[in-house]
Amino acid sequence: MKGVCLILALVVCASALSNVDKEWEQFKTKFEKKYIGKEDEANHYKTFLANKALIAEHNKKFDNGEVTFKMAVNKFADMTAEETSYLRGYKSSPITNENAPIYKPVEGEALAATVDWRNEGYVTGVKDQGQCGSCWAFSSTGSLEGQNFAKTGKLVSLSEQNLVDCVTLCAGCNGGQMTYAFNYVKNNNGIDTEASYPYQARDATCRYSALNKGGTCSGYTSIARGSETGLQSATASVGPISVAIDASKISYQLYASGVYYESSCSSTSLDHGVLVVGYGTESGSEY
């Protein structure tokens, strides 16, 4: 009897291993993964298994109502948060924005319960920064696209590559910040369209042409650091807002859906530029 049980256990384990191996092969094919030798692949496979276990454990909590978002295998599932840090290219600066006015919410203003600027035509489709730490450029074009739409009634996709190549105070794919991008567009009297200056996900020579200008920037306003009420008010009254967040946790890397909340994230150690396009409530959770 013990022999039968042992054989059965071995068969079950072999079947489970076979399924995981199949998932791994499918993962590599889907995301066109290439590794530097067998040892490198073995290390990424180990990370893949660890992340799959983390996802399964987290999603059980989601099913039980303990957390507000789901995680899933994506193209980063074979990497640690440290390995993807080069993609989080927001670089805070010791230089304060002394000349930028601070946004002041109107005292006692009644804000809409829900705002989603995507529905109002202010936001272009989702873009992919690729293997380049240019989040700051995408955050910048997102808010500029919204403000140019508010001004002209036309939604024009603006060139992140223009910013990557031409904002000398930033480091292109090695990081930058949105305020420097806004100042560049203001002083340059324009930014090219994405169609005329397409994204390459690498540093290249600046080739801005005023003939292909798709938008301008007259200036920017800062929201008081850490002020959620200020951010909510600005989002409601101004449009999509460029912000920086702490995206260093593995939960962000493997996020799939729902209201993302990470109790251990920092409000001061910020590393990723993103775009706020609205706010509201989902399943009782405010976002």
From TrEMBL:
Q: Which Pfam families match?
A: Inhibitor_I29 (PF08246), Peptidase_C1 (PF00112)
Q: Where is the Cathepsin propeptide inhibitor domain?
A: 24-84
Q: Which residues form the Peptidase C1A papain C-terminal domain?
A: 111-287
* SUPFAM superfamilies named among the record's database cross-references: Cysteine proteinases (SSF54001)
Gene3D superfamilies, A to Z: Cysteine proteinases
Task: Give the record's family classification.
Answer: Belongs to the peptidase C1 family.
Protein name (Swiss-Prot/TrEMBL): Cathepsin L
Q: Which organism is it from?
A: Armadillidium nasatum
